[in-house]
Write a structure and sequence with these properties.
- The protein has 20 helices and 14 strands.
- The chain is α/β, with parallel strands linked by helices.
- Strand 6, helix 10 and strand 7 form a beta-alpha-beta unit.
- The two termini are about 40 Å apart.
Length: about 475
């Protein structure tokens, strides 16, 4: 069956096509017709993925970022906040298609309360967004706040690092927020070298979230705005090309449930005892007069918010655990694919004493949650795509404790190089065998053949430039 017009994929036309073409005797395929009768699919077309109010939608990574801005606007309306959104930045892969998605929406996108203003360069785009955070102290304002999204490729945040540091030091509006999204291509297809945006964000004292897939581009983006508003800090989000260039079906209901489950600032302060000093945007306050203390105040607010509203997840637990694995962002899917190829179920790993923690907030790591995870563990293996950010934070966290696990990742316990993304399956297999012996029954591996294969299901096999290196 071939239907050249994509608009023909509406519910009535599909039903008609099914009646005519789905069986030799021209009888309808009842199972498919019944499926189309569900509220999730009825009357949806492919281009409804940006505007469908509920159900399941098929989205690319760039479409997910655009839709996330619309969802933030809708969420604010439900909270009786009169806000607007602004998107800026500098065009470049792998986020260069964001403006194309926006322009395809036409005037409808602007009427929804979101402005898109391309910048001449990365730094000017950053300053444009930071200026939106001056709404709160402005007595002539017409909105409660402006939430702002910066998009650019990894080297762009390096070029704009000075503007990011200044903007983060000044702070953001309590009903605004700034999310800085940096697209990274580990294979250096567009830039001359791989970027490490998470290090740039940390250098600017910005918290960092690391989505692992298309759905998390939306949920972590919304989390980033909530975190930014509470802490007064800009929030960085790293997006690898394997994630943002991919597409997936996203359950909108699951995202709404997650967002609606986050506790309010008042509840965060009640449950944690956090007393927030004034770390938001003030005028005519100059941040240099108290820059160091305000940066620490922001990070303390991040820690309090994350303690109550966490996007970290303990994927595999074990009451008799003696080793653990910590993943960050896309590497979590890589690890789960390693387990699948090795024939290891979650039940088998749990029985062998293995814990697995998936981090969403990768800087600063949630100290109480990490302590609870590492309790009674001999060693923790940290798997992360970029520089050893999480590994170094964990080494710092446990360095003064007498009963502490050994931390290995990019480096072993002696500080020697250990982990390369292309050898992940080999190194995980060796590490598990070292601590579990024959308990997991890991088969003998044809290492040379396996290490050349991309591990993540997010990578299209026909695109060589998407393979991790």
């Amino acid at each position: 069956m071939f239907i050249p017009d994509i608009e023909a994929y509406s519910y009535p036309s599909i039903c008609k096509t099914l009646m005519l073409h789905t069986s030799p005797d021209n009888t309808p395929n009842k199972a498919l017709v019944d499926a189309l009768e569900t509220p999730l699919l009825r009357d949806n077309r492919l281009h409804d993925n940006i505007w469908a109010p509920q159900g399941q939608v098929f989205l690319s990574g760039t479409q997910a970022l655009v839709r996330m801005m619309l969802m933030q606007r809708q969420h604010d309306e439900r909270q009786h906040l009169n806000t607007r959104g602004l998107i800026s930045g500098y065009r470049g892969s792998p986020l260069g298609m964001v403006e194309q998605v926006i322009w395809q929406q036409g005037v409808k996108f602007q009427n929804a309360g979101i402005e898109f203003v391309p910048a001449i360069n990365e730094a000017l785009g950053t300053m444009q967004l930071m200026d939106t955070q001056r709404v709160a102290p402005n007595t002539t304002r017409t909105v409660d706040g402006v939430f702002a999204l910066w998009c650019g490729k990894g080297p762009g945040d390096e070029r704009a690092s000075e503007a990011l540091k200044h903007g983060n030091a000044f702070g953001v509006s309590p009903h605004g927020g700034v999310l800085v999204v940096a697209g990274e291509n580990r294979a250096s297809v567009s830039p001359a070298r791989p970027a490490h945006s998470d290090q740039v964000f940390q250098f600017s004292h910005m918290p960092v979230v690391s989505p692992a897939d298309v759905s998390e581009l939306m949920s972590f983006g919304l989390y980033g705005f909530a975190l930014s508003r509470y802490s007064g800090a800009c929030v960085g989000m790293t997006t690898l090309s394997e994630v943002v260039d991919s597409s997936a079906t996203v359950d909108l209901a699951a995202i709404h449930i997650q967002v609606n489950g986050w506790k309010s600032p008042q509840v965060v302060q009640t449950q944690t005892g956090h007393v927030a000093p004034e770390q938001h945007k003030r005028w005519p306050d100059l941040p240099a007069l108290g820059s160091a203390s305000r940066q620490q105040d922001k990070l303390a607010a991040v820690a309090a918010f994350a303690q109550v509203n966490s996007i970290d997840c303990r994927v595999i637990d074990s009451p008799q655990a003696h080793i653990g694995i910590v993943t960050a962002g896309k590497t979590h899917h890589d690890l789960m694919e390693v387990f699948r190829r090795l024939g290891l179920s979650e039940e088998a790993l749990s029985a062998a004493g293995v814990r697995v923690l998936k981090l969403g907030l990768t800087y600063p790591i949630d100290s109480p949650r990490m302590h609870a995870f590492a309790q009674d563990l001999r060693e923790v293996l940290v798997i992360e795509e970029n520089a050893p950010s999480v590994e170094q934070q964990m080494r710092e966290l446990f360095k003064d404790e007498t009963a502490r696990p050994s931390i290995v990742g990019k480096h072993d316990a002696l500080g020697l190089p250990l982990q390369q993304p292309s050898d992940l399956i080999v190194q995980v297999a060796h590490w598990l065998q070292q601590y579990t012996g024959s308990a997991l029954g890991i088969p003998h591996l044809q290492y040379e053949g396996l290490r050349r294969e991309p591990l993540s299901g997010l990578k299209p096999p026909t695109c060589d430039y998407l393979t991790s290196y």
